[in-house]
């Protein structure tokens, strides 16, 4: 991403002290127009990253900018660094209930008992949330997939509210960043266990803060997530038009 192609009017900026850090700070920014400068919305708040910190993800930035570390892979416990589009929101509330609690302006998926996030890299559904009662199975091992409702309820209500970070998806404009079967799957923002416990690669926070983000996000404003250690943020700030 550069200033020339920047069409985004909302940004979730996640910064950590270094590549290995679990803890991070989230700040929300927006513009009134493409020519405007970024303005922070509200106060920053804490979040946690992967148990192994961050590694470069497959997103919507120039692959040549991904230096000083390796690309994350499936199961390596690192959150993705880079710039990413935002995917669908999800939760354990029905669509009707969700609309009563949150002013949703992005697509929302209700996590019923048959919803899975597919983690088998050989499946055509890899890295997507699907209703397994509505599709033909093409994966070898059910254990590779996340049982979204079950795991969301079991793990401190982690998936009560959340949304997709579009890491390793086919919609990425650069062919070298498109979906790769080892590039990692099911990367979300969701509710944390606590401020000291890292994730399997997601970015997690207090419930009130994920709900705040979901209330704020607007698909019409082309929102993005930017996740970087502070050294990479400083290096890329001007090129990526970061606040």
Layout of strands and helices, then pairs:
Elements: E1 10-16, E2 23-30, E3 39-48, E4 54-56, E5 79-91, H1 95-101, E6 108-110, E7 115-117, E8 129-131, E9 146-147, H2 148-154, E10 161-165, E11 188-191, E12 203-205, H3 207-216, E13 224-229, H4 230-236
Parallel strand pairs: 1-13, 4-5, 5-6, 11-12
Antiparallel strand pairs: 1-2, 2-3, 5-10, 5-13, 7-8, 7-9, 10-11
Shape: globular
Structural class: alpha/beta
Could you give the order of the helices and strands?
EEEEEHEEEEHEEEHEH
Return Rg in Å.
Answer: 17 Å
* DSSP strand tally: 13
Mean pLDDT score: 93
Can you describe this structure?
With 243 residues, this protein is α/β, with parallel strands linked by helices. It has one domain (3-236). It has helices at 95-101, 148-154, 207-216, 230-236, and strands at 10-16, 23-30, 39-48, 54-56, 79-91, 108-110, 115-117, 129-131, 146-147, 161-165, 188-191, 203-205, 224-229. Strand 5 (79-91), helix 1 (95-101) and strand 6 (108-110) form a beta-alpha-beta unit. The longest helix is centred in the C-terminal third of the chain and has 10 residues, at 207-216. The two termini are 14 Å apart. The mean pLDDT is 93.
């Amino acid at each position: 991403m550069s200033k020339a192609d920047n069409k985004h009017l909302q940004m979730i900026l996640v910064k950590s002290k270094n590549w290995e850090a679990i803890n991070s700070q989230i700040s929300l920014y927006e513009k009134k127009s493409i020519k405007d400068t970024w303005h922070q919305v509200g106060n920053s708040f804490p979040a946690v990253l992967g148990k192994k910190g961050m590694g470069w993800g497959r997103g919507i930035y120039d692959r040549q900018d991904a230096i000083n570390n390796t690309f994350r892979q499936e199961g390596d416990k690192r959150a993705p660094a880079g710039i990413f589009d935002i995917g669908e929101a999800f939760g354990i509330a029905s669509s009707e209930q969700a609309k009563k609690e949150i002013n949703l302006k992005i697509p929302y998926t209700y996590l019923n008992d048959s919803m899975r996030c597919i983690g088998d890299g050989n499946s055509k559904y890899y890295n997507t949330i699907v209703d397994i009662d509505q599709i033909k199975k093409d994966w070898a091992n059910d254990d590779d997939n996340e049982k979204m409702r079950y795991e969301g309820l079991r793990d401190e209500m982690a998936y009560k509210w959340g949304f997709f970070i579009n890491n390793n998806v086919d919609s990425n404009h650069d062919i070298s960043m498109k979906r790769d079967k080892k590039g990692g799957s099911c990367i979300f923002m969701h509710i944390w266990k606590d401020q000291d416990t890292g994730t399997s690669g997601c970015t997690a926070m207090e419930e009130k803060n994920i709900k705040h983000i979901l209330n704020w996000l607007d698909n019409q404003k082309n929102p993005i997530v930017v996740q970087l250690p502070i050294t990479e943020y400083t290096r890329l700030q001007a090129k990526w038009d970061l606040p």
